[in-house]
Amino acid sequence: MQTLFRIPVVIVLLVLVAPLTLRAADDDETPLGEQMEKMKTEMKALRSALEAPAESARNKYVKMAESFHAAAEAAKKFEPEKTKTLPEAERAQFVADYHKAMDKLIKLSGDLKKDLAAGQWDEARKHLKALSQAQKAGHKEFRIHKD
Ligand code: HEM
Question: Which atom of ligand 1 is nearest to the CA of 102?
């Protein structure tokens, strides 16, 4: 009888703990997600800076691109969460493809840095757009889809 009374208590506890477990599985909790967040911050700042770029702020822009570049280099060292969800036999290829896509991102951010250092705003905008496209493609292929 006493055990019967404990059942609702256990259910309530489970309901309280469940969101905590879900939160831990969210990808902003992963080391890779953290680097991605840094990239997002720099992209946002650069996009708005390039709407009306100031010659005098070139160094600041270059630093933003450098910070993006460093986060992309760091991100390349991790493996996407999705890797674990794939059959063992597919994982090595998946990670190799991920590295290739990150190399492209790293190269693009290096190009962006050069444009900014040279004050070539139109080129910089083009490379920023290419970064957005790489982001879209990268997320489609390598991120776990939650919706
Ligand atoms: C401009 C480029 C990019 C930006 C700004 C960006 C930004 C982000 C953000 C904000 C997240 C979510 C982190 C969170 O939940 O807080 C994320 C996740 C992720 N991104 Fe990117 N991303 C970019 C490019 C890429 C590329 C090129 C790839 C693949 C080659 C990629 C792979 C991933 C993966 C796999 C995750 C999930 C994290 C994990 O598995 O641990 N991203 N990204």
Answer: 30
